[in-house]
Amino acid sequence: MFVLSKLWRVLSDPVTLFFLVVSVGCILGWSRRHTRLGRGLITWAVGGVVVLSQIPVEQWLEVPLENRFPPPQTLPEKVDGIIVLGGAIDPVLSHARGQVVANSAITRLTALIPLAKHYPEARLVFTGGSGSIFDQEIKEAPYAIEFYRSIGFYADRVQVEDRSRNTHENAVFTRELMAPQAGETWLLITSAFHMPRAVGSFRAVNWPVIAFPVDYQTTERPWTPRLSIGGPLNHFTHVMNEAVGLAYYRLRGWSDAFYPAP
């Protein structure tokens, strides 16, 4: 099922779909009976790319995702634990290059540092194994600890969960590891766009958490013309994968709602 979920994300990738449609269009274009259909498919595919690259559809979709769980107005007086979701480090590249290779979601890791200092008694946990189909033996968690050590943070305070392959397993395996008690207060750190699915996953395993979103991608500025094509398309892919994930998690019973809310 894990492999199927990853394959579904590939097939729902707009860039992948674009190349599939164009490929089919080219094949049909060379046939005598379906030339018009082939040309039509290519025209619609190219038109779709132009629209998605110039009109900020991905921003219109992502802004509601990022705003769904706003940051806490005031921090709780007492916090029993803080959870950091993986996704900020590429473990395969880190393994290949012999150093921690982070991506734009690095604030998932750095946001823990001031919170850990503010709550010296809180339990800390990083949850992240491998989301790769082919490199399951290379885990993200050890590189997260290596990152914390490299910047002088007290990495020994951080417990690690390294079996999870997706957000659902983040919730399941972290709950097994930390055994939270009823009435405890836990903060959950992850990217803002990912927070609805993450909170829904933890609620589904009967673990209510307080959202602490980071790694914002949108500014809500008015639309301006754009010259780039690749950037907007990649961002649209990123948003569509999250939308598919929300629906898939609810259908599997891995989330408490299709679109979790505070």
How is the topology of this model organized?
Layout: H1 2-11, H2 14-29, H3 35-54, H4 57-67, E1 81-85, H5 91-97, H6 107-110, H7 112-118, E2 123-127, H8 141-150, E3 158-161, H9 167-178, E4 186-191, H10 195-204, E5 210-214, H11 230-252
Parallel strand pairs: 1-2, 1-4, 2-3, 4-5
Radius of gyration: 21 Å
Helix content: 40-55%
CATH architecture type of the largest domain = 3-Layer(aba) Sandwich
Cα end-to-end separation: 29 Å
Stretches with pLDDT under 50, minimum 5 residues:
none
pLDDT averaged residue by residue: 89
CA-based shape: elongated
Based on helices, strands and strand pairing, what is the structural class? alpha/beta
Number of helices: 11
Look at the structure and name the CATH superfamily of the largest domain: HUPs
Sheet with the most strands? Answer: 5 strands, parallel
Look up the CATH topology of the largest domain: Rossmann fold
* Top CATH class of the largest domain: Alpha Beta
Count the beta strands.
Answer: 5
